[in-house]
Specification:
mainly alpha, 5 helices, elongated
Length: 124
């Protein structure tokens, strides 16, 4: 549980503060590195990174849309065939969850590859 909360907070802070300055694939690399360094299992890395990344993108998309009162979300939702332009917020959060979860899973699996395994007493 501690690694999950640590990963949740580190990824959230990274995506919130560094996200505006680098592209999403750069964030994916950073999340994979954070997941690798925390030493969390692949499942904890998957869900912790995914929830954090998706939640930050969801909150930021709502905040930017409400703050600017732009017509762009409405236009994009019409192009996508959505009946309500607020559904675009949840699609953004879902994309953030997918991006974050698979980059966290990558870091967790890399951590598992580099862990030393007990080979037993009789193995050479």
């Amino acid at each position: 549980m501690k690694k999950f909360l640590l990963l949740l907070s580190l990824v959230g802070v990274t995506v919130y503060f560094i996200g505006p300055y680098i592209p999403y694939w750069g964030l994916m690399i950073l999340v994979a590195i954070i997941s690798f360094l925390t030493g969390a299992s692949p499942s904890i890395s998957f869900f912790g990174s995914g929830f954090s990344f998706g939640l930050v993108w969801l909150v930021l998309s709502i905040w930017i849309s409400v703050d600017t009162q732009s017509e762009l979300p409405k236009s994009i939702s019409e192009l996508m065939g959505l009946s309500n332009d607020n559904l675009l917020w949840f699609i953004t959060g879902l994309v953030g969850f997918i991006i974050g979860s698979f980059s966290g899973l990558t870091g967790g699996m890399l951590n598992r590859i580099f862990q030393k395994k007990d080979s037993g007493a009789y193995r050479t």
